[in-house]
Structures are given as C-alpha cells and as structure tokens.
Design brief:
The complex is a heterodimer of chains A (about 950) and B (about 270).
Chain A lengths: L10 E5 L2 E5 L7 H8 L18 E4 L2 E4 L12 E3 L12 H9 L8 H14 L5 H7 L11 H15 L28 H5 L15 E7 L5 E7 L1 H4 L4 E6 H4 L26 E2 L5 E7 L2 H8 L3 E6 L6 H5 L14 E9 L2 H7 L2 E13 L7 E7 L4 E6 L4 H12 L6 E4 L17 H10 L3 E4 L2 H7 L2 E13 L5 E11 L12 H9 L9 E8 L14 H19 L3 H8 L8 E2 L5 E2 L4 H11 L2 H13 L3 E10 L2 E3 L9 E8 L5 E5 L8 H13 L6 E4 L17 H27 L7 E4 L2 E4 L5 E3 H9 L17 E7 L16 E3 L2 E11 L4 E12 L6 H20 L30 E5 L17 H17 L14 H15 L3
Parallel strand pairs in A: 1-5, 6-17, 15-16, 19-20, 26-27, 34-35
Antiparallel strand pairs in A: 1-2, 3-4, 3-5, 6-10, 7-9, 7-11, 8-10, 12-20, 13-18, 14-15, 14-17, 18-19, 21-22, 23-33, 24-32, 25-26, 25-31, 28-29, 29-30, 33-34
Chain B lengths: L6 E3 L4 H8 L6 E4 L5 H6 L7 E4 L9 E4 L2 E5 L4 H6 L1 H6 L1 H8 L4 H6 L2 H5 L6 H8 L3 E6 L2 E6 H6 L9 E8 L4 E6 L9 E6 L5 E5 L21 H12 L11 H22 L1
Helix pairs in contact in B: 5-8, 10-11
The chains are: A alpha+beta (about 950), B alpha+beta (about 270).
Chain lengths: ~950, ~270
C-alpha cells in the first residue's frame, strides 16, 4: 500500500468512542482500516460492490457500507462498529432480542444487520414489519430468510418502548417432561457472534500474514502458451508468484471426492497447460498486503490460444463437439441406466401418457462468507496448520495430504466459525493455493475469495434437463415412470467438487412420495466449459423433487384433474412404511396424505379459492401452488468422502463436566447447541455442562462433517450412543461407590442418584475419584474401562451398497418429508411475481430444538424462492459468466419475501436412537416447484405454461404472450 | 478487489475547490458519495490518478427555496432528499426517486449530483428530468446553468473538468415516480416519472443509454389509463435503444415502458 505525499496528513476520528489518529494511504477502505489496523474484526466483508451490507458500520450515527468509503473520508467522523453495541456480559436490548429470537445462524451478516437495525431503532421507536424490512434491504442474509431478524428488531423496539413482548407464535412440538430434546434453548455461540467476537478464518490473520490473490482466466476454453510473472515478482511487497507449471513441481492433482463409475479427469488447483472455464486460476500471488497482491495480478501477462468453448448440454452432446479432455472419447463424465418393474407394459396399458420436459437453470450457494483459508506451513517441522472455512475439516485434510504430498497426521485443519456453507465448502480447490504459497514462503498465507471469485469458481449446481414420461390408468394412478436426465457438470464432475453424484440421487428418487410400480431412468452427465459442479443444498433431492412435483401438475392439467387429487391417488400411505422403492431406498416413516392436508388447511384452500375468484373478477391474478417434499437425509456414498459413519467421543472431566468431541461441523445450523442438548439428556445435566468441540482435526475423532442433512441422524446418533456408553459406566462406578446395584441408580441433576433416594454422588466427586483422588483402583468395577470417556460410531442401519439384480441400492438413513403451499400474485402487465404466503408442513421426526428447526425452514424456503425467482448463473455463447456480483446475482432481500408459516408433523424414524431424521434442505428442494405451480394457477384463466427458469418478469410475460397468441383466433 | 493507487485531494471549502477547478485535469475524478465510483474502482474498471473528495463540503449540502424553484446542493445525500419535507411537497417524485435508489446505507452516502453522473439507471435524474430541472455547473473561473436534459444526453459519465454544484427544481407538486425492478433495492429495469399540471413532463430510466424524455409536443395529456398516451409511448419506445442485460432484454424494456409510465402518471395524480 505504498502511499503518496497527500497521505502524510493524518486522519483524526473517533472509533467506538475512542479518539484515533492515523496516517493512512488514500486508497485504504474504511473496512480495511477497521479490520486490519484496529483489529475490529466484527465488521465483515461479503462482497466487493456494496451490496451485502456485512461491512455496515455507523458513521455519525448513520449506517453506511465501510467497504465503499475511504478511511480518509471518515476524517473527523465518529465511527461505531458492532463492538460498540454491547459486550458479552452486557448485551444490548437489540442483541438480546437477536439471541432470544434466533435472529442469526452463521452470524456472518449479523454485525452489519445489527448496525442497520440499531440506526432504525434510534430514529423510529415504532417501526412496523414493512418498515423493518425496508430498513434492512441493504443487508443480505443467506441463512435466516430474514424472518427472525425482523422479529428480533420488532421485539427490541417493543422492549425499548416498554411494551410487553409479543408472544412467539411458532408451532412448537410439546417437550417430554424435563428433557432438553424438544426445547428451544438459546444457542451457545450467539453471544460471541452478536458482539463481533466470532472467529471466522479471515479474522485470524495477523501482521505477519501474507495475502493471496488469484489471477483467473478471462476465457472459457484456452491453451496457456506462456505466462510472464517477472514484472509481478519485481514489485515491492510481492513475496511469491506461482503458476500452475511451477506448482506441479511440488504438488499433485486434486484427488477425486467420489469415484463410483464416473470418468475421472486430471485437474489442478492452478491450471497447468489449459483452462477449461471462465475463472479458472492461472497464477497466484502472495504479498504483504492485499492491495499489493491485487496490484500484482495486473502485471502478470498470460498468452492464451483460444479454443472453441462447449457451453450448453446440446453442444456438449454433439458428436463433433470440442473435447474438454483430449484423451476422452466424448464429453460424457457419467452414464447410468436403471430399470425395474414392467415398464413397457405400463406404457402399453396406460389410459393416459404424459410427457414433460423440465429444464432447470444453474445457480449456487453464495454463503455470505466465501471460501477462506489461512495456511501456515512450518518447514522446520514439516507441519501444515490450516484455518479453513469448511463443512468437512477431516476430509479436506485427507484431500490436502494427497495434493500436497504431506503426511496426513502432520496436517491440522482448524475451523471455528463458518459464515455459511450450503454445500459449497465440502472440498478443497482454490483452498489448496494458499497452502502451496505457504509451503513456498514458510509464512502464513490468507486467501479470502472475492464475491466475483466465488461466483466464477465457487461450485455451481442444478443446470440440467429432465424429460419425464408417466403412464397413468383411467383413475390417474401411476403405472410407470420413465425419466431421462442430462446434466451439465461444467468442467469437472467429481474432482474439484462432487457434483456429478447429484444426478444419480435425482435418478434414484424421481418417484418422490408416490407409488411407482415400474420405473426406468437414464442419466448422462456432461462436461462443459463452465465452472465446477458441486453440491448446493439439495444434492439431487432437488432434481427429483422438482421433477416429480412439476410433473404432477403438468399431468393433472392433461388429465383434467385437480393436481392435489392426482397427488392423493398416488401417495404412499402411512401404513405402508417402511416402504422400499424400486431403486432401493427404504422410506422409514411419514404420513404424506396428512402433510398434504396440513398444507391445504395451512393456506385455507377453500377460502383462498373464493378470494382468488373475486380477485380475477377485478383483473388480478392470484394463485396457489403445492409441492410434496422428500428430503432423503444422511447419505452414505461408497468410494467417497461422503461416507457412511460418524464418530463421537464423550469425556467427563475430573471436575464433572463434559466434552463432546465430534467431526460434525457447525456452519450456522447450530450443532454446537443441539448436540449439547441431546448429550445433556443422557447424563441428566443442563446443556451448559456439555462443551462441544468441533472443527479440530487433531482433537476430534475422524468424522465427516456437515452435509446431506446428516447432523440429526449421524451426528446426533453418534453423540447419543457415545453418551449412553459412558452413562452406563458412570452408573456402574457410582453404584459401586454407593454400594448398590447398577439397576438401582440413575443419572439426574449432575449426579449418580440412588433411585430410593438414599444416596447421591455428584459427578464432580465421581470424576475426581476415578481420575485423581484417589484414582481408578478400587473405584472402577472390574470389567469397566478405567477412564471416563467413551467413543461410539454410528452407521446407517439400512445402508445396502451391494446392488440387487436390477441395480438398486440404499444409501440414505432417513426420509424427512413435507408439503409446501405457496400463494402468489402475478402482475400480468409486467410478469412480476409477488410471493404472499409460504406454508410448510414438515416432518423431520423428533425435533431437537424447534426454534433452530424452524429457522432452517425459514432460510431454506427463502433460498428456494431466490432460486426460482431470481438467482441464475448465466453464461454467454463464449462461456463467459455474466453475473459476477450481488447486483446481478439476485438473492432475496428482506422486503422481497414473506414470513414462512410452519406446521410440524412428528413421525419418528425407527432408524435413529432418538427418532430424529435430519432436515435443512427441504426448502430449496420443494419450493421452486410450488412457486411454478402457483404461478400457473394464478394465470390459469390464460392457460399459461411455464418451462424456463428463473421466473424473471420477462419470462413470465413471454409465457403470457405465448398463451394469448395460442388462444387468439387464427 | 480493492482500488489501485490514486492521489486524494480533500478541499476544505469552496475556495480550495475553486482552486482545483481552476486547473482542470483529465485524470481527476470528483468523488462524492462514491457509491458508484468506488465500486468501479474496486473492480478496477476505473483507475483515476487523482480523486477530489467533495463529499464533505458543507457549502454544497443544502436545500433552499428560491421563489418557485428549489435549489439543492450537489452533495445533498439521497437519504436527505428522500425524507426532506420541503422536497416532498415541492416535488414528491424526486423524494420517491431518491428513496428508490439502492438501500439505506447507499442513500446515506450517495449524493444527488453524483447520482446524476451515474448514467442510464440514475433514478433521481428521471424525476428531475420530468420536473424540468436545471443544473448549476462550475468550471474554471465561472459557473453557469444548464438544462439537465442536455447534460444527460451528453456526457453522463463524464466527471472531469467541470462540477455540478447544484440542481434547480421547478415546483412539481403533482409528480410521481415509479421504479420497476427485480428486487426492491435494484436499479430500475424501467423507471418513470411524471409531472402533471402547467409544465407536464414524463421521463424514463433504463430504456436508453441515458435517462430520456419524450418530446413534450409528442405527448397527449397525461391522464391515468390514457390509450392515446399508451400509443404515443409505444411509438416513442420504438425509437429508443435500450440496454440488453442479463435481467431484462431491450425488447422487454420497450414492452413495459408504457405500463410503467401509466403507473407514474397515476402516482402523480395521487400526489396532486
């Protein structure tokens, strides 16, 4: 950040009440002054173009984005950051309301959100809901769907006015006596996240840290002829410049994440001789300062030979298509066929045959914190310490060990707070680059991707074309289903990420919540010159669900039936569980007809139809749409990093409190809280006695992290079984110490208690006795391990990896389900859609923490709304990505979405010790079809049919025009 | 990304500003709220050698009635315009347009003069153009008034040499503004402002390379639901060259222009 003569004038300002004077370079952004110079790391960055609001601070009381203001422009101002709002022991009214209302999940947007809300409350003591949403329009949140944030701000306003707090109106299942499972306890992590004390990876950089910047290809498909890095290397402050050709001298290709019959390509973190997507890394810089690192990128000269790009599915399929990988015979990375049941007979005997093409566009997760890695390789020890924003620290370590050729046990991956994941952060790709730079320099290197990098190269999902054919009998019963799925996997199916597998999940689950006696599917995954293909909240469940739920409406229209009646005639019935579908999955439990009935009642369907008719008479177009939802949870994929077990260790400390060590990862979904709840119940203590350790590859057992909604099946079940194992030992030891039978004691109130009430032994006394005073001899009964820790591994009891003759498999532990109802109004003059209501009937089995579960539903449903209404990664014909920032990638903002209404149905799973099933992906899985069905219902007087997504006003208006021209007399 | 290096001048008053104006320099950009300029600089689409930060000049931050005209200092924040009682009475379309720009944080920094320089999507310019506003431009040693329409059709992105120091808005109490956008805080795909009364006017953003107004003599009376107006605007739309963006094609912008215009006319009638 070399300066200029003008910079010799110091700025004088007040930050959080403290006078500051500093000489700062002209170009230093206020956010960097706060974070880097003052170490006030509560202020975050989530974009580069003043859209996300994570950097919001108050300047002279007014909220502004500190990323779009120079530090020198704050000269003479009073700046307040989140750190000024309140402290852990004295939270402000607003912070307490956020904690009470669960107004934060990953917490990354929270500091900015608090500053905007605080400014609102200071100028308006009686805001209404619309006013709060409008005040927060400049603060993006990807987790909460804004609902609980808005509720928290309204609560805080009421409390500040002295009004009685509104009573929470969420549907809460009843709790079971004094159990912690079933209770909406406040989350343990919230106090630190609300006070700016979170430890996200970028917050951990210090003065010695080098900053990485990555030069990315401006072309979709090109050969790299030559790279000249000499000018960049010569710049003061530049410590290292690395090209792909240089990196392969001391590293290996990225290893696969899944290998189940996909065609594998070789890929590297930095392209070696060819680039295959717009945004692929071609060189990287490490410099003493992020500004200098970015300056240096402009000095690197790359000579490209342009190649013809392959962008869409049809191009990739063509016989004469350019090959992405020259040694492949074509661009197919995955082919799969399955058929079982009398499928040809079904179509031969059908009264009605319905064929529908159901395309789906490409979009992505965009957590508010992008990918961040802080690598420190110490050559004297041969050890790599990596602070990583990840969902799966253990597998990332395994992958890195292979790429970096380091002993795995000498790599430590540490991950404390993660600013959201949603599937994006399951592997290492760009994350390898700071490791390489650190190995070259021996210094810590931070890579915090820009939002543009995140959209260009952060893995993408969806982007497929489905054809579905159904054979129906005269009563509308499905006799058979044929599906054909073509997926555009971008440059990479399962190396850089794990995307190709989601096509198979889709193929397995197209039957959805319905009885399908004959089924066939064929799947082709194609490589193209688009960004890598990976997981995003759904991982193929979305493909299946969207397909069948759109198909139900399309078929109902052709059959002349009500769509929900068609659904009801085909739903699996509650007395049929466990229900094995032809492809092998065993649905464990549920009541699908009840969910559908709940959704219809939830939006008061009969009353709505009356209102709809009145609106139509007045020229307004209201519609309701439904979609059943099936969310296979707890995947267990052979030959992959997404495997079939989870291990937990529970340790009682000598002082009688507990550590739970888990490979599960908290990424905002709250496992730090929910795991403590379930373990607390096993020991009869309060959850604050359980300290959950995660994100620590040296401390925790090898575990597989957060994906596939597996927390409440794998993560919770492993913790429960470990706790039960230790609880049995505590009873045995306690019984011996109190001289009674093991059967005569129970664990309660932090003690082993005799059930007859005659004696009680506090955990602290037991722990001390076993561990130190006197120690295990004479204390621990024979046959019991002389320690106070237990480890258990939970595996999926219904997994079947050996295919039957037809090829069926079972890889999901549980099958949460639901039904969504959406009410929209369509502006037929412009094509604009307003979503008025979303109702979710939901069954995830036993609910551990209702507030957390509801929060997941709010956020998931809003992500589904974003996907169907606005989010789109659009490529031009040359394979250039057009949406590279939050001004063009349209995730929902607070005023765009309604509150999500929720009804719970509890059908416990027989497959898990607590009856839990897992949840979290249902919203993005089911909402898009429900919205499309609602828009078609609204426009049914015009007989509008929708196909392409997202539903931009322009597309909707074009569909209206098309329908009108069809109806116009010729 | 972060900006490339530049020199930053921060004049402390009008005299220092005039001294800078006296030696124009093609590589000098005015930095006002910075919500557009710094964004482009962060993406390294622009790398000016020198910025002059005028955002703190109190002399350019005012709202003053001068007879029938409201004069607004160029660095008046959009947040102020959106809520100022005088502005809301004098030209409700202007308050509505200012309130429609970006979000709370952006409006707390963005200025009216800066917004006029941001090109085709500048919503404030739409309201000002429909109201028949003038701008006051300062250059080396002189200051003059100019029709906003001429400025917009000329160098909308130009930020050098001269400086908009004030905007003069004729009274337009019956005026309305409507932005049609994908999300509440997005720039308008099409935005429209209408002024009714003695000096009727209609102006659009998002439908051409810059903010435009159909020629007054080409327009029938501005009345809600007017079929004649719709026909005239459909003809006008055909003469425009709207931008093609990932979120709205040129054809779509043309298609909905008359619809949004009618909504602006209704808003203006409602304000009257």
């Amino acid at each position: 950040m070399t300066g200029n003569p003008q910079d010799s004038t110091p700025i004088r300002l007040e930050v959080n009440g403290e006078a500051r004077e500093a000489l700062v370079p002209s170009r230093l952004l206020l956010v960097d002054y706060l974070r880097q110079e003052l170490r006030l790391t509560g202020t975050h960055t989530g974009c580069d173009d003043a859209r996300c609001g994570a950097c919001t601070v108050r300047v002279d009381g007014a909220p502004v984005k500190s990323c779009m203001m120079l530090a020198r422009q704050a000269d003479g101002c009073a700046v307040e950051t989140v750190e000024a709002l309140g402290t852990a022991d004295r939270l402000s009214v607003l912070q307490r309301a956020f904690r009470r209302r669960h107004g934060l999940q990953c917490g990354y947007c929270t500091p900015g959100m608090l500053n905007s809300a605080q400014a609102l409350l200071e100028r308006n003591s009686e805001p209404d809901e619309a006013g709060v949403r409008a005040a927060l329009v400049g603060n993006l949140c990807r987790c909460t769907g804004y609902q609980n944030i808005v509720a928290a701000v309204l609560d805080a306003a009421a409390e500040l006015r002295g009004d009685a707090l509104p009573v929470a109106d969420e549907s809460r299942p009843a709790t079971d006596g004094d159990k912690w499972v079933g209770r909406s306890t406040e989350r343990v992590q919230d106090t630190r996240l609300l006070t700016g004390q979170g430890r996200y990876v970028a917050d951990l950089a210090d003065a010695d840290t080098l900053h990485a910047a990555i030069l990315r290809s401006p072309h979709a498909h090109a050969r790299i002829r030559r790279i000249d890095t000499s000018a960049a290397r010569a710049m003061p402050g530049v410590v290292q410049v690395l090209t792909g050709a240089e990196a392969v001298e001391f590293s290996h290709p990225l290893p696969p994440t899944i290998d189940i019959g996909m065609r594998m390509n070789e890929s590297h973190a930095i392209a070696v001789d060819k680039v295959r997507y717009h945004g692929e890394p071609v060189a990287a810089v490490a410099a003493t300062d992020p500004y200098i690192a970015e300056d240096a990128l402009a000095k690197i000269v790359v000579d490209y030979e342009l190649l013809e790009p392959v962008v869409d599915i049809d191009q990739a399929l063509a016989d004469d298509a350019p090959r992405l990988y020259e040694d492949w015979p074509d661009n197919r990375c995955l082919e799969y066929q399955f058929s079982d049941g009398p499928i040809d007979q079904a179509f031969a005997e059908a009264t009605h045959t319905v064929v529908a093409e159901i395309p789906h566009h490409r979009y992505t997760a965009v957590p508010m914190e992008g990918r961040v890695a802080l690598a420190h390789y110490r050559s004297s020890e041969g050890r790599l310490t990596l602070r990583l924003s990840t969902q799966s620290p253990h597998q990332c370590r395994t992958l890195l060990a292979q790429t970096l050729d380091l002993p795995e046990a000498r790599i430590e991956v540490i991950c404390k707070d993660v600013g959201g994941g949603f599937g994006l952060k399951l592997q290492v790709d760009g994350e390898v680059i700071p490791c390489l730079l650190s190995m070259r320099t021996g210094r810590p290197v931070l890579w915090a991707e820009t939002r543009e990098e995140n959209l260009l190269s952060g893995i993408h999902a969806r982007d497929y074309c489905l054809t579905m054919e159904g054979a129906f009998d005269n009563d509308g019963r499905l006799l058979g289903l044929r599906t054909h799925l073509l997926g555009n996997c971008g440059c990479d199916g399962t190396n850089r990420a794990a995307g190709a597998g989601q096509l198979l999940v889709g193929a397995f689950y197209f039957p959805g919540n319905y009885k399908v006696p004959a089924y066939s599917t064929d799947v082709v995954g194609l490589v193209s010159n688009k960004a890598p293909y990976g997981a995003y909240r759904g991982y193929g469940k979305d493909i299946a669900n969207h397909g069948i739920e759109r198909f139900m409406n399309i078929a109902a229209r052709q059959l002349g039936m009500d769509a929900n009646e068609l659904r009801r005639r085909n739903l699996i019935q509650p007395d049929e569980f466990p229900y094995e579908i032809l492809t092998g999955p065993i649905y464990d439990s549920g009541d699908y007809p009840e969910l559908l009935a709940m959704a219809e009642a939830g939006v008061d369907l009969a009353a709505f139809r009356k209102r709809q008719a009145e609106a139509r008479a007045a020229g307004r177009y209201l519609g309701v749409g439904f979609a059943m939802m099936l969310e296979p949870a707890g995947g267990a994929v052979p030959n992959s990093i997404f495997n079939a077990y989870e291990t937990a260790t529970v340790r009682m400390m000598p002082q009688g409190d507990f550590l739970l060590l888990t490979g599960m990862q908290d990424i905002g979904q709250g496992v730090e809280t929910t795991l403590a709840q379930v373990v607390a119940d096993e020991f009869g203590v309060t959850p604050d006695r359980i300290n959950v350790v995660f994100g620590d590859t040296h401390g925790a057992p090898y575990g597989l992290g957060a994906w596939s909604s597996r927390g409440a099946s794998f993560g919770v079940s492993a913790a429960v079984e470990a706790a039960r194992k230790l609880a049995r030992r505590l009873r045995a030891i306690g019984a011996r110490m109190m001289e009674c039978d093991t059967d005569a004691v129970t664990l309660r109130d932090g003690a082993v208690q005799r059930t007859d009430g005659a004696a009680s032994l506090a955990f602290r006394d037991l722990g001390n006795a076993v561990s130190l005073w006197p120690g295990p001899h004479g204390i621990v009964p024979e046959g019991e391990e002389p320690n106070l820790e237990a480890t258990a591994t939970w595996t999926n009891p219904v997994v079947r990896w050996v295919p039957n003759d037809a090829g069926s498999l079972s890889i999901y532990a549980t099958h949460p389900s639901g039904c969504f109802a959406v009410i929209v109004e369509v502006d037929a003059e412009t094509g604009a859609i307003r979503v008025d209501r979303v109702y979710a009937a939901h069954d995830c089995g036993t609910v551990i923490n209702p507030t957390i579960v509801n929060g997941q539903l709010h956020g998931g449903c809003v992500q589904g709304l974003g996907a169907v209404l606005g989010e789109e990664l659009r490529y031009d014909e040359q394979g250039h990505l057009l949406n590279k920032g939050f001004w063009d990638y349209l995730i929902p903002q607070a005023p765009d979405v309604p509150n999500i209404e929720i009804g719970h149905l509890v059908c416990p799973s027989p497959n898990t010790p607590l009856g839990t099933k897992g949840m979290g992906e249902g919203g993005p899985v089911g909402i898009p079809a429900a919205v499309m069905n609602a828009v078609e219902d609204a426009l049914s007087p015009l007989d509008v049919q929708l196909s392409e997504l997202p539903l931009s006003p322009e597309r909707v208006l074009a569909a209206i025009d098309a329908a009108r021209s069809q109806r116009a007399p010729s | 990304m972060r900006p490339a290096e530049f020199e930053l001048l921060r004049p402390r008053g009008r005299a220092e500003l005039d001294a800078i104006l006296a030696r124009p320099d093609a590589d000098t950009y005015w930095l006002a709220g910075g919500q557009a300029l710094l964004k482009d600089m962060r993406q390294r689409l622009l790398a000016p050698k020198r910025l002059v930060d005028i955002s703190g000049l109190a002399e350019l931050d005012y709202i003053r009635a001068q007879g029938d005209v409201l004069e607004i200092g160029a660095v008046t924040r959009l947040a102020t315009l959106a809520t100022d009682a005088t502005v809301r009475r004098h030209c409700p379309a202007l308050a509505a347009a200012a309130a429609a720009v970006g979000d709370v944080q952006i409006r707390n920094r963005a200025t009216v003069g800066g917004n006029l320089c941001t090109g085709g999507g500048a919503d404030v310019a739409v309201a000002l153009l429909a109201a028949g506003a003038e701008i006051v431009v300062a250059g080396a040693g002189q200051q003059h008034r100019r029709q906003l329409a001429d400025f917009l059709a000329g160098e909308t992105a130009g930020n050098r040499g001269e400086l908009i120091v004030a905007i003069r808005v004729p009274a337009a109490p019956a005026s309305g503004f409507v932005k049609f956008s994908r999300r509440a805080a997005d720039p308008g795909i099409v935005s429209a402002a209408a002024t009714l009364g003695a000096r009727p006017g209609l102006a659009f953003g998002g439908v051409h390379g810059h903010v435009v107004a159909p020629p007054a003599d080409a327009l029938p009376a501005l009345e809600p639901g007017s079929a004649a107006l719709r026909t005239a605007l459909e003809a006008f739309a055909g003469e425009l060259d709207p931008p093609d963006t990932p979120h709205a094609s040129a054809a779509y912008r043309r298609r909905i222009l008359a619809v949004i215009a009618d909504r602006a006319v209704r808003a203006a009638a409602g304000a009257a």
